[in-house]
Design goal:
- By secondary structure, the protein is of the alpha/beta class.
- The strands form three sheets. A five-stranded parallel beta sheet has the order 2-1-3-4-5, sandwiched between helices. Strands 6-7-8-9 form a four-stranded antiparallel beta sheet, covered by helices on one side. A three-stranded antiparallel beta sheet has the order 10-12-11.
- The longest helix is centred in the middle third of the chain and has 18 residues.
- The termini are far apart.
- It binds calcium ion (CA).
- Calcium ion binds next to loops.
C-alpha cells in the first residue's frame, strides 16, 4: 500500500476518476463530497494526504484548510479551478503543501502526490530539534518559533523556510535549493515563491523586532546570520 488519500471534491465524476487512478497506482482512496465531511474525515485520521478542492459546498476548501491546520500537518494539495496568483498565495500561505490547477493531467497530479508524501517522510521529526539563531528559537517538535519570549505566528511554509535557513546559518542557500527543500522537487509553481516568502519572514522577524537576520546575497540567494 502506497498510502491512503482523501479526495475532497464535489464534482462526483472527477472525484471518481481520481479515485480510480489512485487505486490503479496502489493507493487507498476515500472521498468526501463537501467541505464539512472532508474536514471531519481528514481530522479523524488514517489518511496520509488530502486532495482538497477550493470551491466546495458547506465549507470552502480554504476554510477547511484553515481549520485542519489548527490540528494537523497532513500534506494538502489544493485543486483549484482559478489560476490566479492571489489564490495560490492564499492557499499556500494557508498551509497547503502544493496546488494543481484544473484541468490537470493525472500524471502531474500523481507526481505532486509522490513528492508531497516523500517530503512528509523526509521531514518527519526524529525526536524534535531545537534550533537557535541569536534571539530566535525554533522548536520543530512543538512547531513553535519564539523571538525572546514572544511567540511568532508563522504559516507552515514560513516555518519550513525559516527552519531551513536556521539549520544552515551563515551558509548561502540558492533559490533553487530552497525551492527543492521547502516546496519539493516537483514544484512547478511560481519561481518567485521563495522571494515572496522571504518577504513574509522579514516582515515578521526583522521588521517586527528591529533586527537583521535574513540577508539577500544578490544573484545567489539568501542566508540567515546572527551578528548580534
Ligand atoms: Ca468544486
Amino acid at each position: 500500500m502506497n498510502g491512503k488519500i482523501l479526495i475532497v471534491e464535489d464534482e462526483e465524476k472527477l472525484a471518481r476518476f481520481i479515485e480510480m487512478e489512485l487505486q490503479h497506482e496502489g493507493y487507498e482512496a476515500g472521498k468526501a463530497p463537501d467541505g464539512r465531511t472532508g474536514l471531519s474525515m481528514a481530522l479523524d485520521g488514517g489518511f496520509d494526504l488530502v486532495l482538497l478542492d477550493i470551491m466546495l459546498p458547506e465549507l470552502s476548501g480554504v476554510e477547511v484548510l484553515r481549520r485542519l491546520r489548527k490540528q494537523s500537518d497532513i500534506p494538502v494539495i489544493l485543486l483549484t479551478a482559478r489560476d490566479t496568483v492571489m489564490d495560490k498565495v492564499t492557499g499556500l500561505d494557508g498551509g497547503a503543501d502544493d496546488y494543481i490547477t484544473k484541468p490537470f493531467a493525472i500524471e502531474e497530479l500523481l507526481a505532486r502526490i509522490r513528492a508531497s508524501l516523500r517530503k512528509k517522510q523526509s521531514t518527519a521529526a526524529p525526536g524534535g530539534d531545537v534550533l537557535r539563531a541569536g534571539r530566535l528559537l525554533l522548536d520543530s517538535a512543538r512547531h513553535t518559533v519564539f523571538m525572546d519570549d514572544t511567540q511568532l505566528e508563522l504559516t507552515k511554509r514560513e516555518f519550513d523556510l525559516l527552519a531551513m535557513l536556521m539549520e544552515n546559518q551563515g551558509i548561502v542557500l540558492t533559490r533553487d535549493r530552497l525551492l527543492e527543500q521547502v516546496w519539493g522537487y516537483d514544484y512547478q509553481g511560481e519561481t518567485n515563491a521563495v522571494d515572496v516568502y522571504i518577504r513574509f519572514l522579514r516582515s515578521k522577524i526583522d521588521d517586527a523586532f528591529g533586527v537583521k537576520y535574513i540577508y539577500t546575497v544578490r544573484g545567489v540567494g539568501y542566508t540567515l546570520k546572527n551578528e548580534d
